[in-house]
Amino acid sequence: MDERVLLQEEIQRLRVDNRRLRRLLEAANAPAELRHRMRSTIALLLQVIRQSAHRATSIDSYAAHLAERVEAISRAQAAADDQGSIDLHSLLSEELTRFRVLEGERLELSGPAVRFNARPGQSIALAFHELALNAIEHGPLGLDDGRLRIRWHFEDKSQHHVLVLEWQESGAESCPSSEAGFGTQTLTAMLFHELGAQTSLFHHQRGTSCTIRIPWNEGLGSVLDEQLVPLFR
Q1: Are 113 and 224 in contact (CB under 8 A)?
Q2: In whole angstroms, what is the distance from residue 76 CA to residue 122 CA?
């Protein structure tokens, strides 16, 4: 059977499971907030499944990459369940640790204390998972001397606060991928749709540079850094 047919059949099975889960939640009279969060997470997962299937080159590649993406979303959801929100620094550190890129060794993280709500946090988790995966497979993080710096800060633009996240790879010359795959789709179209974010992505011989600019609002989360409190009054 054609691989594309198999992928479409898998998507259809997941849609059926989604409808069954919704019915079970409603029958159990689950709290409205829980049902909303479950629907939100499932909607994001279905979006990821469809896009992964659309861009898959083989069943094996589809299965492996889809599992990693679902795990990234699930980890963010687990953090939100345990702590009520998702700490940006922890999210980045834990995601890169899974690729054996450790803070203080090959990884530098710096920025104010920012916590995301569940759905925007899941989108951010997925975006940085794709950046990390690309850096391992095609960029300098797959090499011993590869380095990564991630910084974030707020800009005050005429009463509109913008969270700016900067990803900068460096190291020996690598072979960055110029193909617009799922990762590019996530960083551009999906982040724009979910967060209103504007993303600049540049591939160069020593890695990838990415800047994500997110218009900040209370629906995204909270800022705990005391130095920034006056900015948000």
Answers
A1: yes
A2: 5
- pLDDT tens profile 54-90: 565 666 666 667 778 888 888 888 898 889 899 999 9
In the predicted model, residues of the chain with pLDDT beneath 50 are 1, 30
- Give dist(CA 160, CA 216) in Å, integer: 7
Packing angle, helices 118-137 and 32-55, rounded to 10? 30
> What is d(CA 9, CA 44) in angstroms, rounded to the nearest whole number?
19
On whether the CB atoms of residues 187 and 212 are closer than 8 A, the answer is: yes
Predicted pLDDT at 129: 92
- For the chain, which domains are there? 3-232 (3.30.565.10)
* Edge-to-edge strands, sheet with 221-223: 86-87, 114-116, 221-223
Q: Answer for the pair 145, 108: CB distance below 8 angstroms, yes or no.
A: no
